[in-house]
Design brief:
Elements lengths: L12 H16 L2 E4 L4 H14 L4 E7 L5 H14 L3 E5 L6 H5 L4 H20 L2 E3 L12 H8 L5 H4 L4 H10 L25 H16 L5 E6 L2 E6 L4 H6 L1 H9 L5 E4 L29
Parallel strand pairs: 1-2, 1-4, 2-3, 6-7
Antiparallel strand pairs: 5-6
Helix pairs in contact: 1-2, 1-8, 5-6, 9-11
């Protein structure tokens, strides 16, 4: 309270973050945005394009079996709606035995494949590759971030102080429809570590999740355990899933699963990372911790 009893307005932290982001993008001058269509990469693509113009920003979507079909469609729709300069590249992470083996460094192998595909485009543009990593991402096991950083990618949202909540709030202020878009990780994140990542597995996950979304569930994770599927939904959607039990079972079984289970703890982003030991988690001295 002030001396006169009136509430003191909280400083506009989100606005400050946005101004720092705009300044950082101006410093970079030309960027290539790894554009998956999620709330973070979409926000970064839009702000960068507004700040640098389409000629200064190339938005690149990496297309592979680990990208959900709905996400690919939405990148194309957003590029059209926002007049983004957009292209697609094919990535070949499934050709890498280390990626298919699905150990604790799977994401690092994936980001290496991404940088192999995007790097030449950035070189041709004389631009810097930027990823939509926010501060909250740094606390999870995401070795792909360090792999991308080692190849020259930078993380303007981290540098500008953006949390996930700040990304969503500024996106809302800017009128971006992605402000409340559900989190969407690559389909390989549905496969427990140690279980090989294969094309049939990724297709099964994609089909099942698409079927569940068609029933009206926005936030969906289907965890793959052979012929058993563990479905994670928002806690508020659990009763609805029980009410639609027959349709939920049919949607998941249409993808080839025999057993359909509903996780009563609900959706938890990155919960498969809990099995990893400290040796596979990011350390305090990694490149992102210093950024």
């Amino acid at each position: 309270m002030s001396a006169h009893g009136a509430s003191v307005a909280r400083p506009d932290e989100e606005g400050h973050c946005l101004r720092r982001l705009q300044a950082r993008l101006r410093d970079l001058r030309k960027v290539v945005v790894a554009f998956s269509g999620g709330a973070d990469s979409a926000f970064l693509a839009k702000v960068a394009t507004d700040e640098l113009g389409a000629e200064g920003v190339l938005c690149v979507t990496a297309v592979s079996p680990s990208l959900a079909p709905e996400e690919l469609s939405d990148t194309r729709a957003l590029a059209s709606e926002w007049s983004l300069r957009h292209t697609e590249v094919r990535t070949t992470e499934l050709a890498d035995p280390a990626y298919r083996a699905n150990d604790g460094l799977r994401c690092a192998h994936c980001k290496t494949s991404l940088m192999d595909a995007i790097g030449p485009l950035a070189d041709g543009e004389s631009a810097t590759v930027v990823l939509g990593v926010n501060l909250d991402d740094l606390g999870d096991h995401r070795p792909g971030q360090e792999a991308a950083a080692s190849r020259g990618a930078v993380f303007p949202l981290v540098e500008s102080g953006f949390t996930k909540a700040a990304v969503r709030e500024v996106s809302r202020r800017l009128g971006l429809r992605t402000w409340d878009k559900p989190a969407a990780a690559c389909l390989a994140s549905r496969v427990p570590y140690g279980t090989p990542v294969t094309l049939p597995t990724l297709r099964a996950v994609a089909i099942a999740e698409s079927g569940l979304k068609a029933l009206g569930f926005r936030q969906v994770r289907l965890r793959h355990y052979g012929d058993l599927a563990r479905v994670e939904l928002e806690a508020d959607d659990l009763l609805e899933a029980v009410r639609l039990r027959a349709q939920v079972v049919a949607a998941v079984r249409s993808a080839g699963y025999r057993y359909v289970t509903l996780d009563l703890e609900g959706f938890r982003s990155g919960n498969l990372n809990s099995v990893l030991g400290p040796a596979n988690r990011p350390g305090p001295d990694g490149p992102l911790a210093r950024s």
